Amino acid sequence: MAERSFVQEVQALRLGAGETFRGEGILAVTKALLESGVGYVGGYQGAPISHLMDVLADAKDILDELGVHFEASASEAAAAAMLSASMHYPIRGAATWKSTVGTNVASDALANLSSGGVTGGALIIVGEDYGEGSSIMQERSHAFAMKSQIWLLDPRPNAESIVKAVRDGFELSEASNTPVMLELRIRACHVHGSFETRDNVRPDFTLEQARNHPRRETDRIVLPPASFAHEQEKVTKRWPAAVEFIKSRKLNEFFDGDITDIGIVLQGGHYNGVIAALRQLGLADVYGKTRVPLYVMNVTYPLIDDEVVSFCADKRAVLMVEEGQPDHLEQAVSTILRRAGVTTPLHGKDFLPKAGEYTNKALIEGIRGFLDLQAEKPAALAGSKTAAPLPDDVANALNKAVPPRPAGFCTGCPERPIFSALTLAQQDVGERHIACDIGCHLFSILPPFNVGASTMGYGLGAASASGLNIGKGKRSISIMGDGGFWHNGLASGIGNAVFNQSDDVVLIVDNFYAAATGGQDILSSRASNRDRSTRHPIEDAVKGVGVTWVRRIDHTYDVGAMRRVIEEALTTDASGPKVVIASSECMLNRQRRERPIRRKALGEGQRVVAQKFGVDEDICTGDHACTRISGCPSLTLKETDDPLRDDPVAFVDNSCVACGHCGEVADAAVLCPSFYRADAVHNPTFWDRTLARLRKGVTAKLQQRRDAQRLQEPVGEQP
Amino acid sequence: MADELSRDRPICVAVLAIGGQGGGVVTDWLVALAESRGWVAQSTSVPGVAQRTGATVYYVEMIEAGGQTPILALMPTPGDVDLVVAAEWMEAGRAIQRGLVSPDRTTLIASTHRSLAVSEKSVPGDGVNDPQAVEMAAALTAKRFLRADLSAIAQANGSVISASLFGSIAGSGALPFPRSAFEEAVRAGGLGVEASLRAFDAAYDCLDESAPEQADANEAPLPVLSGGTPAERQKYHALCERAGAYFPDSMKAILRAGLNRVVDYQDAAYGEDYLDRLEEIIDLDKRVGGNDKEHALTAFVAKYLASAMSYQDVIRVADLKSRSSRFARVRGDIAADEEQVVAITEFMHPRVQEICGLLPASLGRGAEENRFVRWLLSLFTGSKRVRSDSLRGFLSLYVLSALRRWRRKLLRHEIEMAHISRWLANVTRTANDDYDLAVEIVRCRRMIKGYSDTHERSMSKYDQVLQGIDLVRGRADAADWAQRLHEAALQDPDGVALAGALKTIESFSGPKSEVA
Which residues in chain A touch residue B155, judged by CB atoms under 8 angstroms apart? Predict the structure, then answer.
């Protein structure tokens, strides 16, 4: 069960010819796949393409009707390997993942696939996780396309163009027997737009036919001498075929302008940004009419030499708009011009940023710089405005006031107590080398926990600690999520540790989902899933590969227990890797499951207990130690109206989900007695009410008695 | 050809929110709204991991295209945004930092509520950043600046902030659509429509265009204690009059607060001790020329002596947790109605020290040294969950709080009083030759907070600061150094900043042996 329900989106997949699809770019891709008669789809979830996976996961019925096979692959490598079904059979297949990280994982399979080449169209949809909002190292997928010779599509970022790219992509792949990569940046994946739909198409060659009539062409398989032939074939046959197709089908676009002596060459994905920049400079309008000629590369690999030459030949200067580094395109274009003897000066990263996202601001400044250089610069140029800067004192005050706000653990996250326990454990047994992994748990490296020294890739947490595996000195700790564990950690981390007789500690964070990517089910998920086999305990897998010391905590919120287990793992005499499995359900998904049930029960007048934590503001001394080992968003501070106080007191706001962490921590760390949990019983039973009345009878009496005897301060204001 | 370029421009809207706040919902509503009016709308976002409580931006462009296909941008252009909506106060500041707010164009709507960042919450002192900074910057950069506590409005109407944000957008008139169209977009969205529309309605005309002005604390009527025996009440009122008569008016508010606190803590007699001590201080204050300093010394002693005398011991905690007013406060906090039954579970962790503190001074000291007794007591210490609404739980708290009667004879009291005497002696001694330094020494009490370990750590910091102060005694800038030390001590839990400050001081004045 994914974080969001996609029922509405799934219905949009049923739209027929002539209807209008409205929605996210990545969902437009999903629909386009079905319209293109795709036979099978695989992938691994991750921003910004998670929704493609989530929607298909919820669209079983539609896929069955069309005879389309969908797999939630174990990893990007598994998804890429799936595409081998298009090697021998005329079946269209698609795979999707977050890039470049996913492409890194998939590259082995991709290299083999593109060496042998494909018969059916093979489309790889990569969500280019680059620039603002990205969570990974800043690299380009472009290099993968070049090294394995996979054609790279970078369409203009609107639904129409993206959908067209999917359709063209399959045909290009088939016309050139080469896999095609469709690159969509974060904003393009999430852009809301619309396009005119077509009917979905059943694949004419079905997977069943393939299974019943197996084929094999030895010369497609990567093994000498075929592998040598493949390399030749790539440049002699497939490349020219691709160039021919791209030219004849006019996949790249030219936009004329009246200032004909200059021009801009750009990646399709930056078209809207360039138009926005030209608008600001008074050289284009909102309907795309431009005064500067544009050559839009919707295909960024391979380049079409004579298109490049004809666009640049008679110009005084050309600007290349290519985001990120290295500047593969700028280099390629200048080579093409040089070979053709075209002397037009080529600009690019001399005006535009060498590295980093091409924001509208960056584009405006870069293009202005380029135009300023020209002999007769366009008159309108002066018109573009820039906001006046703030006075220094105001700006400084603002910079001091606005706090950094990185992502962190959600309210009630079951991983927070794990790191509180780890922090407390280190206070007892000393600081340790801690290797982290990819997943929500990586937020441990940020304040308030500041735990963790490295992250080497999804599922590689344990493996990345193996360098220190010498069995002497202080035991190291490595952390791995359940997602990473099944992605590859079982083999690369646990198996590796067993085989190499590691003496260190592996802490596996088991929150029942691939939580960071949107709460998708995985092998060890507890939920029963109609279409997947779940409930395979991590504990069994770990023991299966030979770990003998395994401890499982089924309630991570018990900070005391968590801390004891970690300390035991760090101090036990047992040999071999010590594996601690910390299991509690991701709170986001748990709330999503339980809220509707609770609402229903309340509506039906059933007895429901609503819990919330609180802090007695007159007992809290405003030291904030609790927030330093918690960092829960709902555990915050508030100013009191008590003139005797200088500092704000701790305060639990209404977003509290009563996970109990703050109380547990205050207890485990012996902080203070300010925390309490209030259980409000809705629709109390007769027994509840009688008992309450009884208690109130006594307590109220005693309280009145005391109030009469002693002077007391008036009650403070409510928050 | 230039003149052939169309002058049409889209309306550009940026929504700055924190992951989980529902900025995406607002964005979807905006798109639905525009499309329902036959406009073309394009929204983009970069949620990614920011969905997990991080700051993020949603961006929408909408235009009445009349059949043509507009090319809309995927991110805001500084200086070209018509409407910026900040779902939290500091996010408005972030929008300004990013240059999204411009005087010729931008309507800025900000929710005045704060959602504190970890960096602000972790400081042992007051790490909350200055909201005025945003107020000032917005006043200079925004064409219109509209503000309201949209979070509170949403809560009051059983909804979430996305609904009140949308209502405020409608109310601002920044978008050329009728209110009915906004409400239709909410209805079309499905989910929680009724609550959303309530919050929408409440937010529609709540926006404030002028900066709020601060209320003056000194104007408020002085709070008066309630309850107590006639005799106690009489004593108390006498004390109030005595305070009013003997001390300057400037400090009447803080003085009353202090008096109330100590009387509430113990009894009227204890309040008398408080005033006795304070009178010595004000006399001294006048002697050493405090008149020209608005008697800052006395004012601060009034404040910190009250806190020092009402130290948090087991008796105090039991007392506060078993009060009727407290039960009422808890019910209020969870908005429990009369029908609902509320159970309260306390998280306590008494240590041997706390138990010993409850024993008569001599006995307690003996106990702390005696290993057997310590072991015996340890049976009553450790992690405790107390149901303060149950008879058993309530009675145990009630009985503990009743020990108040004997508090003055208990070990903890002796320890605290000794500390206070040393502190005031130091103040008195210092005031004679350096008034400002004396004031700083008074203010150092602020450092002492927390319970158990945290309390001990704060105590040791306090001692370090006072030793540091002894090193700068006699210097003209002694007070400034004292203040620096004091602030450093509150900056981080591990005393890194403090150690640094102390090093600096030792660098120019060799460590002395004399201790406060």
Answer: 654
**Domain regions of chain A by residue span:** 12-248, 253-400, 416-589, 607-708
Looking at the structure, tell me whether residues B99 and B146 fall in a common domain.
Answer: yes
- B188 vs A: CB within 8 A: no
* Distance from chain centroid for Cα B63: 44
| Residue B418 forms part of a structural domain | no
Q: Is B492 on the interface with A (CB under 8 A)?
A: no
State whether B495 and B444 are in the same domain: yes
Minimum distance, in Å, between the CA of residue A445 and any CA atom of chain B: 13
With contacts defined as CB-CB under 8 Å, which chain B residues touch A668? 383
Residues B352, B287 share a domain: no
B69 φ/ψ angles, rounded to the nearest 5 degrees: -100, 110
> What is the interface size between A and B, counted as CB pairs within 8 Å?
429
Q: What's the Cα-to-Cα distance from B2 to each of A256, A277, A289, A291, A381, rounded to whole Å?
A: 14, 16, 10, 7, 11
Tell me the ipTM for this assembly: 0.94
CATH number of A12-248: 3.40.50.970
Fold classification of A416-589 is Rossmann fold (3.40.50)
Which residues does chain A have within 8 Å of residue B65's beta carbon, measured at their own beta carbons? 287
What is the tens place of the pLDDT at every residue in B9-54? 999 999 999 988 889 999 999 999 999 999 999 999 988 777 778 9
Tens of pLDDT, residue by residue over A362-415, are 999 999 999 998 766 665 554 445 556 899 999 999 999 999 999 999 999 999
pLDDT in tens, B287-314: 999 999 999 999 999 999 999 999 999 9
In this structure, are residues A587 and A410 in contact, taking their beta carbons and an 8 Å threshold?
Answer: yes
What is the CATH class of A607-708?
A: alpha beta
Q: Report the C-alpha gap between B48 and B390 in whole angstroms.
A: 47
Chain B residue numbers with beta carbons less than 8 Å from the beta carbon of A443 are: 52
Structure tokens at A669: 């760390």
> Does residue A167 belong to the interface with chain B, where contact is any CB pair within 8 Å?
no
Q: Is B416 a member of any domain? A: no
B152 touches chain A (CB under 8 A): no
Choose the closest CB to B49 out of A400, A407, A704. A407
Q: How many domains does chain B have?
A: 4
User: Which chain A residues contact residue B162 at CB under 8 A?
Assistant: none
Contact of B263 with chain A, judged by CB distance below 8 Å, is answered with: yes
- Position A670 scores a pLDDT of 85
Q: Tell whether B167 and B33 lie within a shared domain.
A: yes
Contacts of B38 in chain A (CB under 8 A): none
Q: Does A130 touch chain B (CB under 8 A)?
A: no
Same domain, B302 and B325: no
Continuous segment of H or E residues that includes residue B178 = none
Residue A439's pLDDT band (boundaries 50, 70, 90)? Answer: very high
Q: Does B317 touch chain A (CB under 8 A)?
A: yes
* Distance from C-alpha of B454 to C-alpha of B464, rounded to nearest angstrom: 15
Structure tokens at A207: 């997977």
CB B114 within 8 A of CB B93: no
CA A272 – CA A359 distance, rounded (Å): 11
pLDDT number for residue B3:
59
- What is the overall mean pLDDT for chain A? 94
Of A285, A637, A710, the CB nearest to B116: A637
Q: Of A646, A667, A685, which to mutate for an interface test with B (greatest number of B Cβ within 10 Å)?
A: A646
Which single residue is written with the structure tokens 């405005």? A385
* Same domain (yes/no): B156, B297: no
Residue A637 and residue B121 in contact, taking contact as beta carbons nearer than 8 Å: yes
Question: Looking at the structure, do residues B79 and B134 belong to the same domain, yes or no?
Answer: yes
Cβ–Cβ < 8 Å for B324, A707: yes
Question: Stretch B354-362: mean pLDDT, rounded?
Answer: 87
Range of the domain at B368: 314-409
Same domain, B54 and B157: yes
Gap from A217 CA to chain B (nearest CA, Å): 42
